[in-house]
Every structure is written in C-alpha cells, then in structure tokens.
TrEMBL record, chains A, B:
InterPro entries: PurM-like_C_dom, PurM-like_C_sf, PurM-like_N, PurM-like_N_sf, ThiL-like. Belongs to the thiamine-monophosphate kinase family. Substrate binds at H54, D259, F309. It comes from Marinobacter suaedae. Mg(2+) 2 binds at D47, D75. Pathway: Cofactor biosynthesis; thiamine diphosphate biosynthesis; thiamine diphosphate from thiamine phosphate: step 1/1. Catalyzes the ATP-dependent phosphorylation of thiamine-monophosphate (TMP) to form thiamine-pyrophosphate (TPP), the active form of vitamin B1. Its EC number is 2.7.4.16. CDD domains: ThiL (cd02194). The gene is thiL. ATP binds at G121, D122, R146, S211. GO terms for molecular function: thiamine-phosphate kinase activity. This is Thiamine-monophosphate kinase.
Length: 316, 316
C-alpha cells in the first residue's frame, strides 16, 4: 500500500465526515486552509506521543488515537478555545491494515466527540510516533493564559485527579476489578474539559491543563504569574475508586502523575461566587494564591521530588 | 537537562529573535495564538522527516533543521501564501548539547531566511523525528490549489530540477568536486520559492511544489484537475553541474527525484504573456495541459516507474 492509498483509505473518509465550515480546504492539497472569523484569534498546540515513552508497546491503536487527540485538545481547553480542526503527522513502522483501521476508528470517534475536523497530515515510515496539532479559536484577546494568577485568587481543579496515573499499574492486569476498570477508563479515554474551558474564558485569571501532575502544572502557573500558592491535600478531589485502590497514596498520584487532562485554574473569589452553579459543581477549590513564591501543600507528608513527568528529566 | 530547560536554552531565544507581529503569543503557554488579519485565510501544512528515511544517519543537525523547515515552507510557496510562523515537534534519543546547539542555529537561520517565527512546539524522547507545521496567510479565497489546471494551460517549473536527487550519490564523498558541491548545496540548503508563489497567486491556475519528483507531482495536479499533460524532456531545466555529473541521466533525476522544492504551475497562455519579465525569467515552459488524462513525456526513453519517492510504496 502506497502513502497516498493509505491516506485515501483510512483518513480521507474521516476528513469528509468531520468537516467544519471553518475548514475551507481539507486534506489533499499542499496546505489546508482555515477561515478564522473576524473578531477571533487562532490558538494552536502540538503534542507528540512516542511508543515506549508515552504509551506502552503494542498499545491498542484505537485507544492511542483517542488519547493522542485528547491530550492535544486539552491544551485548547486550557486556553478556553472553541475546537476547530487538527493535523496528524503519523510515523509508522509498517502499513498494517488492522492497526490503521482501528487507529482511524478511534481518531474519528475522538474527533467527533471533541468537535475537531481532520485538516491534513503527513504519513511516513519510521518508528511509531504520533504528532497532532489542534486548532481552535478564541474571541480576540480573550485566550486564557498561565501568567494571570493574582494574590488572593482561588486555586481550583476540575474533576478528580490521579486516576490515569494509577491506571499505569493495571495496564497488564488480565482480570481487572471494577475499580481498576474505572481508573483504566480515565487512562484509555480521557475527556478534555473543552466546554468548561470556554465557560471559564473571561472569568479565570490563569489556566493550565493537568498533563504532568497537579504539582508540576500548578507550578507553571505560579512561575509564569510570579506568585506562590498554598493548597490543602485533603481538598484535592479523588475518585472513590482511586482511594480504594491506592489508599494513602491517592494524593501522591494526584500531585505527581499526569494524563488526567483536567484543568487547574485560578480566579478571584468574586468571580467564583458569580459562576453559575453547574460550572462550580465541576470544580473543587483546593487553595489560594499567595505572594510568596513556591507551592506549599498543607497536610501532605511527601518530601520527594514533587514534579510530574518530564520526558528529559532523567537524561544528562 | 530537563525538557523545560532544553526548550529554554535552545528554542526560546529563537522565538524571541524571530517574532512576528501576527504571533500574539509564542512558546511557553498551553497554546500559541496567531492573529489572522481580516480579509486573509490561514493556510498550514505539516511535514515529518525521519532519520534513515528522509535523511541519513548522523546527518549534521544544522542542515537537518534547514531542510526540514524548507520542505515545510515549500508547501506555503505552492499555495501562494505569505509565511507567518511554525511549530516544531522534535523527538530526540538524547539531549546532546552540541547537536541541539547546531540544530537551533540552522533552524534560526532558515526561519529568518523564510520569514517564519517559532510559535511553539513539543520536545520528547524517542527516535530522531522532526515534525514541522508551517502557517501562512493568503487573501481570502486566493490560495493556489492543485485542481485548477485547464486544457491549453502552459506547464511551467521554476529553477532547475534533479540536483538534490543526484546529490544523494555524493553525500559521503570525502573530497567533492565543484559540481558535486553545487548539487550538494541544493540538497543541504534548499530555497523554497516563497516570493514566486505569492507573485503567481491569482495568475496560476494550479500549483504544487516538487518534493517527490516532477513526474509524480505534476501527476497530482493532473489527477486533481481531471486533465492530462504533454511535456518535452528537452525543455526541463537542468543545471550545468547536473548535466556534467550525470549526463543522459540528468532528465531522469529531474523527473523522478524530489527534494528540489521548486514549483510546478499551470497557467493560461495569456497569463504567461502578462507576467512581468522578472517572474517569467524564474520559470521554464515545459509543456501544456491536454484533455486526455495522463502524463506524456516527449523525447524521453524512460519506461520504468515514473513516480517519485513514496515512503510507503515498497510496503505491502
């Protein structure tokens, strides 16, 4: 199967089925063309997943496609952006039809779920690497940034944290319990907070998606904003399944492991009070911003490296 | 060296030095933000280069960076787009400082030459794979497409073809002659036709950049346009160096080998006549569009596969 045949069979149908009115020209020419409406800015982010680094060898390709698009789309959520389209750069050791068929299926399901149309891509032969770039739009000047956290702001997170990190322990489990299945679902099929991100646009003072663990990602907000924060370990939202599976370690998973793709945002107390209750219900207040730099975690005994996953940290 | 340290040292300076007024937010947040002016459409393309497939093992990283950005920028040229910015997804086996330093230098030189600002990226650990996505803008509805070639249009190409393909024979040459150096330069440091592409916007009926060889790329135009073409082998522009080095094979290199990143365009005879002479001087008329599908090459004895480089063609 040639490169063009491969694209025609597995990706062109996806492009047709997930078309967006903003996508003037999709795959098949030298470039794709996107119309950005007047009064909107383009926001975009690129994410790479490498076999053996970001996902295990022989990981099912439908799940891989979903996770890859979810990870990229989560960056749009963190900017408060409306999703539009994405490109796929796929490097593959061989053109295996069943692998490609499942990959294409998972990608289409995720694209439909997240509202992202396939705009173009590049397929090449090589080690298995998936790079996705997602495009969204925000009202001009309204994108959520990392650098706006102010003293006195509340620190909030969406959903429950730590599940996807704990799931790594159970990937090879032949007969997972119901609790294991619950956290595995969070790992295999994360749901980026796209609607919530847009609802917090113009309200949150800073935002980031939690891809490397709460501690590492909140620290990015603190550094970019030139402030510090104090959070309470007991306030960090944990799923009952995670607590039952990992006991006292549940908070460690939430602080240190990524892949949950929840949002961490800061906002002034008045902004929090003014939020509609259905949005507040998706968030937990876990602490507040303080002038003194650094992250302080009350009620947590951990002393080891608080940082999350860093793909180069172990290297010289 | 951690991932963030690596970005800070080798890529943040590049971002600062090549800033574009259209790039509202560059690297360092969850997404980058680009402002697309009213009356313009965004055009974008993604390209991947894999070690051992698109470039040899131990290929110098400054040249790799230039070639990767040139290959991607060439797609902007083929759309007649004005370059704006790009993202870099870089997968690396290790964070080697001298490799990264040269890569960053080559990338900056190319970015400055092509008018592209670094908007964001992702660095990960893995086999050496470089994925670049370039962004440009065109006046609304004015992007050059592949599908507009009409019966009677002239077929033109820019520059000379085949040099980069022939250069592959001399990559390991310890003491290259002047002619070898000339074709090697075309391979190591291709110059996408960005200005020419913009000048042909609104004039050419179809356009493509020659990345897979003239025969394969012109066939993309023919298929997309539902037409055929007849071209004359003797009219294909060849550099004196290529002719001296490869003799009768020079036309084969021009037809079959890619990496030259010249443009192939079609345009009505009246459009050709109306072009300013400085633009006509950059183009050679090599044939014309005909109703009968397929590509006919007059005065060429080649009978083997006329197609260019296809990364999956040899696979099952």
């Amino acid at each position: 199967m040639g490169e063009f045949e491969l694209i025609r069979r597995f990706f062109q149908p996806l492009a047709g089925r997930s078309a967006s009115s903003s996508l003037i020209l999709g795959p098949g020419d030298d470039c794709a063309i996107q119309r950005v409406p007047d009064g909107r800015d383009l926001v975009f982010s690129v994410d790479t997943l490498v076999e053996g680094v970001h996902f295990p060898k022989a990981y099912p390709s439908d799940k891989l496609a979903w996770r890859a698009l979810a990870a990229a789309a989560s960056d749009l959520a963190a900017m408060g952006a409306e999703p539009v389209c994405f490109t796929l750069a796929l490097t593959l050791p061989c053109a295996d039809e069943s692998w490609l068929s499942a990959f294409s299926r998972g990608l289409f399901q995720a694209a439909e779920e997240f509202g992202l149309a396939l705009a173009g891509g590049d397929t090449t032969r090589g080690p298995l690497v998936v790079t996705l770039q997602v495009h969204g739009v925000v009202p001009k000047g309204q994108g959520l940034h990392r650098n706006g956290a102010k003293n006195g702001d509340l620190v909030c997170v969406s959903g429950c944290l730590g599940d996807a990190g704990a799931a790594l322990e159970y990937l090879a489990e032949p007969d997972p319990t119901q609790d294991m299945q619950a956290v595995l679902q969070r790992y295999h099929q994360p749901l980026p907070r796209l609607a919530l991100g847009q609802q917090l646009s113009g309200v949150a003072s800073a935002a980031i998606d939690i891809s490397d663990g709460l501690a590492a990602d909140l620290e990015h907000i603190l550094e970019a904003s030139g402030v510090g924060a104090s959070i309470r370990a007991e306030a960090i939202p944990l799923s009952p399944a995670l607590v039952r599976l990992t006991g006292d370690q549940a908070v460690d998973y939430a602080l240190r492991s990524g892949d949950d793709y929840e949002l961490c945002v800061t906002l002034p107390p008045a902004g929090w009070q003014a939020l509609p209750s259905d949005i507040r219900q998706q968030l937990s207040v876990i602490g507040s911003i303080e002038p003194e730099p650094g992250l302080r975690i009350q009620g947590w005994q951990g002393t080891a490296d608080q940082h999350g996953f860093d793909h180069f940290r172990s290297m010289s």
